[in-house]
Structures are given as C-alpha cells and as structure tokens.
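Sorry, I am new here, but would you mind making up a protein's amino acid sequence and the tokens describing how it folds?
***
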Amino acid sequence: MKDILTAPFMIEMIRTTTNMYNHGWDERNGGNISLLLNEAEVREYLDTDRVLRTIPTGFKAPELDGKYFLVTGTGKYFKNVQYAPDVNLGLVRLTDGGGNAELLWGYSDGGKFTSEFPAHMMSHVARLKVDPENHVVMHCHPANLLAMTYIHTLDEREFTRTLWQMCTECIVVFPDGVNVLPWMLCGTNEIGEATAEKMLTARLVVWSLHGIYGAGKDLDETFGLIETAEKAAEIYMKIAHLPRVNTITDDMMHQLEARFGVKGREGYLS
C-alpha cells in the first residue's frame, strides 16, 4: 500500500493550506477545507476496513453516506499542516446517514474535524446537486472581502456587480456572482443550512463580518475563485472613498460574456 503522504490529493491539500496561510486568509486556526475523495483513490493508500475511531457529526446528510473526505482539524493552524499533516488533517468516511464519521487516518493527537464540518457537508450536498464535479468546500477570512462587508450594501446583486466592475476577469471567473449572508453564529447547523441554500445558486457565499465560503471541482480552482474575488475586493477598498472616473460597464461585461462563452447571473446586468 502506498504512503498516503505521497498521494496527489494530500500533496495538494498541504500546498493549498500553506498558500492560504501565506496569503493571510487563515490567521491562527481561522478557516477550513473539506475535499471529497472517491473510494478507489483512498484504497490506494489506506485499508478502508481499519477504522481508528468514530466521531459523531451532530447532523444528518443521507446523500453523503459512505463518502470519503479529507478535512482540516478543529483548532488547527494552517501554517502547521505542512509540518504535521497527520495531526492537522483527517480522512473520514461518513456513515449512519451522515450522523457519524469513521476516522481512517489523521487527527493523531486525538482531535477531530473542523467545527464548521456541518456547514461544509451541507454545502457539499448542495453543490453536488448543481454540479457533481464540485468536490471542494473552502472557508477562509480574506481581509478585503471581510472589510467590504462593513461598508458596502449586502444586497447580493449590488455586491456582485461591484466585484465584477473591479477586474475585467471577474465576470468570467464567477459569472454566477456572489451570494451574501448577514452575520450569523458560526459553527452551527443554522449557518450551515443557510450557506447550503445559497450554494445552490453561486459557488461563492460571503459570511458578513466573518469571511467567505467557496466551492469548486478541485483545490486549485476553488482557491483561484476566492483569490479573484478577494483581488476585486482589494481594488474596491482602495478606491471606495474616491470619485470613480472610469468603470467596467454592463456593455463591456456583455462583450466579455460573448468572448469567453459565459453568462452573467440572470438579472444582474442591464
């Protein structure tokens, strides 16, 4: 059996968590990632019949029964993942309709998955309904998107349009726009359910005064999705107090739609 630390999904998870920390998106133990894996790739590295322990999840997700996830741990710092992946990450299989998680590898210090695990799993359920190729849910605290929620209306159409107007590539990268939640208590099933509902119509969901959730087909795409939105928010925060002489117009965005074969969210452009 192969060494799991050589698995492509493990190498990419370590690389991504390190990069996110270096970007300043995941201070201390802020942020979390879950990656859906298929059984065949897991079996190359682990004996799936060897369960280390069972961890109650505190929710139900029958659609994910039997699914495998590589997940960051609760209270863990992204900066430490590269040095001790077996402590800071865990690979689990959901059972009992999602009510329990069988630990197959990791959390070697006795820890468990992130406190946002319910929100992640509910978002996985939602995104898989929209696109079966969406295997990643990523949460982090990008400073400019967070700052933007303090000074910009939280209306989803207006929030999206502002981001689209900041960078030419934005409507191409996230044509489905950005959904926004008001402040809610984190680590609860309630915020998980609200996020999952928003995930049905967009791959980016802003948690006001907190951070952002992103979903995508792999770690690289999801990172790039958040990175693009954060860059747009950074530009906005630099110019929000200044008179705007130029902007990306709706006509320009329609040209981008035609050029790149995308379609902006219905009703968001004139």
